[in-house]
Design brief:
This protein is α+β, with helices and mostly antiparallel strands. Helix content is 24%, strand content 22%. The protein has a 5-stranded mixed sheet with strand order 2-1-3-4-5, covered by helices on one side.
């Protein structure tokens, strides 16, 4: 596990993966709120269980680095961006629905019963 941090109250970075199947993720949070802490815990757990060392997770606190919100086009927090593997994927919301996050990161196929644009408001995703 890496020890990279962003600012005095930052959260440590995740595992450093290697190889072609490495996932590069950035999680943007807003301070140390309960919602931010839940999103961090959820993504770390998901990465540890599903990616088993094949990921690099950077956590960015937008309260400490507000200019990054403008630079990266972040309009809500938490926001998770998958930089690699391509294509870029963006998930917005509290990330508490593990199945939706797995589908959004393309770690699981979309279940046949779920259509695009339907369902709960616990996360949204964008392709870029």
């Amino acid at each position: 596990m890496g020890d990279d941090t962003e600012g005095p109250d930052a959260f440590p970075a995740g595992h450093r993966g290697s190889g072609a199947d490495c996932y590069e993720l950035t999680l943007y949070v807003s301070g140390a709120s309960p919602r931010s802490r839940r999103a961090i815990a959820q993504i770390r757990k998901l990465c540890d269980e599903e990616l088993e060392g094949r990921f690099e997770l950077q956590v960015v606190d937008l309260h400490q680095q507000p200019a990054l919100a403008v630079q990266q086009g972040i309009v809500a927090a938490p926001t998770l961006i998958r930089h690699l593997p391509l294509p870029l994927r963006t998930l917005v919301g509290d990330l508490s629905n593990t199945q939706r996050v797995l589908v959004g990161l393309e770690l699981r196929p979309l279940p046949p019963s779920e259509g695009r644009g339907e369902g709960s408001s616990d996360g949204d995703e964008r392709h870029e």
